[in-house]
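Data availability (excerpt). The following record was deposited with the supplementary files.
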Amino acid sequence: FRSTQAIKLKNEDEIVDCFFIFDDNEEIMTFSSSGNAVRFKQNEIIPTGRTTAGVKGMKLEKDEKIISGLVLNPEKEYKGVFTVSMAGQGKITPLNEFSLTSRTARGIACQKLDGEKLNVVYLVGYEEKLTLLAGNKVISLETQDIPIQGRATVGVKLINLGEEKQKIRVLCS
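Predicted structure:
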């Protein structure tokens, strides 16, 4: 196999999400470990070469990281943004609670974290089930059983992550 460099990264940087952009009307959302979200038009990202570092997708504080990114297609309907904290608290927040800003903004809170970090973010359509994977735990949830709550709420206990507080992965079915 032959590999090709796709982006120039600093030693401490890593790629957390990768997606294709198909439509000029699509929007991008980025989410930080401290629970902030930025929503912006994709045309704010200027195309650059493969060997460049790209452009800033969100303003971060010290020790804060981007944990996820999403693409919103204007042709699709979404139930909202599903978030879960490292404490296993989760909820779905309607997209209309996230206003458009600039990609270089600090963002707005997407979940009240009470000293925790944001664990996972997932864009929920009207799938019937979501499966959460964390370490050796697998939990299946009906999307209708996940509460729809505002940005400034904690959510409800969805999964017990114990002391390890592993990264959660989400599968839809």
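Summary of structural features: The first strand starts at residue 27 and ends at 32.
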